[in-house]
Amino acid sequence: MTPTSNQHHCRSDEPADAIASDRSSTLSQDDIFHVLQTNRRRDAITYLIDKDGPVKMSDVAEYVAAAENDTTVANLTSAQRQRAYIPLYQSHLPKLDKKGIIEYEQSRGIVRPTDRIEIFRPYLEETSGDTDGSSRDSLQSIVTSAVNDYHVTSTCASTGLLVATMAGLLQIPELTLAVLIVGLFTLATVATTVTDSLATTDGVDGRSVH
Question: Would you say 170 and 161 are in contact if contact means Cβ atoms under 8 Å apart?
């Protein structure tokens, strides 16, 4: 990565000394969160944070477009590329340049990350970790809900079969009835075991993170 330069490469209506001051001033927490609140800026920083030299602006735009469309660069359509390219070219990259996070030569279509971009690494890693945790929690919640619903259903079904048979509404041999009821509760027990196993695994993973 290159050191932060005081030279501003993008056209701007602001005075040169104000731009230089903005690029050299320390980024506050509000500045950092403002930069990261937009997906396209966040994705651009994610792409650039491990780059040691200049990259094409078009490469940044393709990465951002692929991320926001949940696809690969090879499968991007022209429209998807264009939707990401224009805002990056006109707004997002100039803003990152103004903050000294990158050096953006707009006329040449070249982007260079500066040392300042490292400030964002912990925030990006934290976001990624939270997303994985949320997915796990969501999966466990779905499984747990399904198991609870099955418990209720199996209990009602077993009770219904028993009552209907005793009332003479259904002619089911006692052995068959017993097998059905035992089978329903056996499946419920297996489902509960699986849910407990998932919860234990999540607990171990959570402790290992810390």
Answer: yes
